[in-house]
Model the fold of this input.
Amino acid sequence: MRPTTTLLRSLSARAFAFALIGTTLLAACGGGDDDNGPSSPTPPDTQPSEQDHTLFAMQNSSSEDALYVYIKSCGAASWGQDRLGATRVLDVGEVITWTVNQPGCYDVRARTSSSGGQKAEFMGVNVAEHQTTTVTIHDADWQPY
Done:
């Protein structure tokens, strides 16, 4: 086989793999709830600029993985759906960014397991328009659920 044909097949396979991974992640993460809060995580290599978007980021600086992240408008009764989806995890040292549909006050909860485990809650987080608002989880933030 000619070298250019091999290269094109290799690039096509990679492009397909990246497209498949991106589509799977977006589908797994789900969209925003009716509260117009943060939507699906934005892939790291396509981060929008702060000037054009309102962003919410969650950074895990703790020694525990966050298996679930819930975000709701301040004062709302329900936490709604897990913003990480069925297959995503906020690993130790990782940052995940969401585009926010509507700036405002939000409560944020991260959990280490579906039953029991630990939770880290951040109440009254002000997500300002055209900025990135970052919440950082530290070891001291984890409390028994």
